[in-house]
Amino acid sequence: MAHEDCIFCKIINGDIPSAKVYEDDKVYAFLDISQVTKGHTLVIPKTHTKNIYETPPETASELFSRVPKIAAAIKERYNPIGMNLLNNNEAPADQSVFHLHIHIIPRYDDGDGFS
Ligand code: 5GP
Ligand code: ZN
């Protein structure tokens, strides 16, 4: 169920536009508005959950099960030389949007991949 005032729920609903990378009935992936590197993507469950502590195992399983396919698609599209997966939980650990998300951050030999 969508969570009032959650920007990622609004992105899932299409109330806020986003650059879609992948979507199915359980998961949505889209480009991070602040591209740390080229192709920086966020993968989120369609069910609102604040962070890893509040995530039911089934939701976590659905989310993580899509990551290899999405990572492979990003690798194919952007041709990075490596890739980091990152998940921040709570503000002291740099969580700024309180809807669970996994960052996929491609890595390039020139840095951010834009040059
Ligand atoms: P966090 O800091 O919570 O781990 O990551 C949240 C991410 O969401 C940040 O990297 C930030 O750039 C991204 N973000 C915040 N608002 C929006 C938005 O409206 N659209 C998109 N595409 N990304 C957003
Ligand atoms: Zn949400």
From TrEMBL:
A motif (Histidine triad motif) lies at residues 99-103. Residues 7-115 form the HIT domain. This is HIT family protein. The chain holds residues 1 to 115 of 141 of the full protein.
